[in-house]
Amino acid sequence: MQIKPLADRVVIKMVEAEETTKSGIILAGSAKEKPQIAEVVAVGPGGCVEGKDVVMYVNVGDKVLMSKYAGTEVKIDGVEYTILRQNDILAIVE
Fold first, then answer.
1. 3-class SS at 86?
2. What's the rounded Cα separation, in Å, for the pair 31 and 48?
3. What is the pLDDT of residue 31?
4. Mean pLDDT by 10 residues, the chain (94 residues)
5. Which of 6, 5, 10, 3 lies closest to 87, judged by CA?
6. CB of 33 within 8 A of CB of 41?
7. Could you tell me if 82 and 5 are in contact, meaning their C-beta atoms sit under 8 angstroms apart?
8. CB of 56 closer than 8 Å to CB of 45
């Protein structure tokens, strides 16, 4: 199944959280923070949203930094995705 976001929405797939800290301590599942870096899987066309023209600045394959509790999580074919508006993306990670 393929997801095609509408308007200014973006579909992202979360990057796995680190299993260990920099000092080598292994983290339990409950101790891990929700990752905020994700890979863009699909991008909507932009256009006119709420009376304003929206230009899409992200592309498929970009790594992005997103707001902590942004978007709606969905599970399709056993894979978890998050659908959010472009303005919930804070930065592109290079």
1. helix
2. 41
3. 47
4. 93 77 62 75 92 94 92 95 96 94
5. 10
6. no
7. no
8. yes
- Residue 58: what pLDDT? 97
Written as one letter, the residue type at 86 is Q
- Cβ(10)–Cβ(87) under 8 Å? no
DSSP string, 25-58: PBPPGGGSPPP-EEEEEEE---EEETTEEE----
Instruction: Write down the pTM of the prediction.
Output: 0.80
By the 8 A CB rule, do 36 and 68 touch? yes
Rounded Cα distance between 88 and 31, Å, is 25
Give the torsion through C-alpha atoms of 33, 37, 42, 43, to 10 deg: 120
Phi, psi of 75, rounded to the nearest 5 degrees: -120, 120
